[in-house]
Write a structure and sequence with these properties.
The chain has about 375 residues and is α/β, with parallel strands linked by helices. Helix 6 links the parallel strand 8 and strand 9. The radius of gyration is 23 Å and the shape is globular.
Amino acid sequence: MARRSMPILKRFLASPASKLTPTRSVTYMPRPGDGAPRAVTLIPGDGVGPLVTGAVEQVMEAMHAPVYFERYDVHGDMKRVPQEVIDSIKKNKVCLKGGLATPMGGGVSSLNVQLRKELDLYASLVNCFNLPGLPTRHQNVDIVVIRENTEGEYSGLEHEVVPGVVESLKVITKFCSERIAKYAFEYAYLNNRKKVTAVHKANIMKLADGLFLESCREVATKYPGIKYNEIIVDNCCMQLVSKPEQFDVMVTPNLYGNLVANTAAGIAGGTGVMPGGNVGADHAVFEQGASAGNVGNEKLVEQKKANPVALLLSSAMMLRHLQFPSFADRLETAVKNVISEGKFRTKDLGGTSTTQEIVDAVIAALD
């Protein structure tokens, strides 16, 4: 009997169904108390901001995620970010933010820039990657743009020398250049990335961008396992639209990073699906990765058809930052499944769905 059963046993063991397929892996051992709910400062912002932040709130509640929000109304036409909002972020260490509209001209400074400087959020990170099921011109795109966030052309040092002549100063320092380079290489090292590309215009701005490159080169010597190269920003834009898969991690001064991140986002699927955040030594603010663009789109607000995907994926980044990896994985997987199925998509992705329909689909897809 035993001999006759052996072939059957062998066939059973060889069959795919018998292979061990663990449904759960050990990825994170929490410390006692790590499961306590965390407070997160919430700034809905302007335009579509309340729609997409509301979407995040609904999904977090459906997941029973261990976070709760302290909501503050901040709008781009304010002269300053209210001190109580700054105090809340300093206390909670983490903020989730919708888009804040910045008036053109008129002497009103950007509240986004104010937040970055007040909290020293020196690194902006935008992850631009292909989402399964979302057709794009290029495949195998997975670019992380890391941008210096506190100086450069955004220093805000402008004045009128004489009537009709305005001087705007670009400030580059060794300290800020070194720390953004260190952050980029550290990110690459911790995330098994193979290459860091420094974007510059040192052929023209020899001192300012030259200092940035010098700092990147010094840091690169400390990470021999990561390939380092440099590219002039205009050539970078051309290479991005022709062969984006060649890039991995990109580190840039302030203005170039804004341009490169938005270009990469457009190539990989659009600003409506690209997550991002701003981080410093003590605080982090998560928001849509590339420029909102549609913050002031009144038609989207009226029709309630803003795309919440970018902020939902940014929220998954936030959950990992808060050391809630399983919740982050659940959220990210649900969002990707909804995009892959293609049944529910907003107008920017070729569909007609409303924000609420996307939210309902993501909640239904949560495992």
